[in-house]
Amino acid sequence: MERLPEGCISDILSLTSPADVCRSSLVSTLFKSAADSDALWERFLPADYQDIISRALHPFPSAALSKKGLFYRLSDNPLLIDGGLKTFQLEKSSGKKCFMLGAKELGIAWGDNPNHWRWEGYPGSRFPEVAELQWVCWFDIRGKLDTRLLSPKTLYAAYLVLKFKERAYGFSNQTVKARVEVVGRAGGNSSVCSEEILIYLDPNGEGGEHFARERGDGWMEVEMGHFYNEELEEENDEGGEVHMSVLETERLGTKRGLVVQGGHTNSNLKLEILKVDIRSITKTEEDTFLSSQMASTDLAAVSTSCAKIASAGTMESIEFA
Fold first, then answer.
1. Other beta carbons less than 10 A from residue 236's beta carbon
2. H or E element: which one contains 157?
3. Among the listed ranges 17-26, 139-148, 182-191, which one has the minimum average pLDDT value?
4. For residue 123, what pLDDT is reported?
5. In this predicted model, what pLDDT tens digit does every residue of 134-159 receive, in sequence order?
6. DSSP string, 253-303
């Protein structure tokens, strides 16, 4: 291997992943040189990375960074783009594209009525403003994202990310409906992975697997569903949109919160912040998802709609913020 030109080693490493490249840099000084080259890391950056950087709310000197340095800048620090409505980030181990949609980018029923939702800054939020629920009966939040923004040939998972205060009314052990689907592609057909599920916003939700969990960054999240982002067939292909929704419009009970001192209880939680996030999930989790699909669905049906998933190296995700 020591006799191979550095460019040849870079070509070989480009067929792996960023995580594999970092490990290979320990093999020898030649491998380390190849693993640090701009030519290699340019291939791990998305084709439209310059356009995305140009949309940053707070520009930074990206040209002064090496391509490896730029990759880690985009994977370690979410980039606020599109006037502060979204954040962009690269998944560090795979280089897949991740996005987070802020509350201002979502369709929230009664969101323009200050008696129901309050818009303000919040410590620790990535966005200038968040939506804080005052009270509603009709709970309806929807978001959408152009699939052309995402990495092709990739299985994504959608997460609702939220934060709670000590007291609230209407969410304790109550399910809400969540749905994720891709529309506008292949004649408007949706992914087989877009069935409606019931989720708990309450982290102490009982009787189901889809309940809010700690993220490790001060927020909580609950999975809403999966979708597969296909590769564009032609350069002018308009792609589609991934639509996400979280609804509780049947019981119509009052949902509101009180700001008081107290601890987490099963019945008194206040929904405070919502987000949409896109990040990576491991290959093991992807295989588990595929196994569950095959266990509950006819093999031929799974093959028709999800066969392409097998070639995807990672699984990404989207969140509401």
1. 6
2. strand 154-165
3. 182-191
4. 77
5. 888 898 999 998 989 989 888 888 88
6. --EE----S----SS--EEEEEEEE--EE-HHHHHHHHHHHHHHS-HHHHH
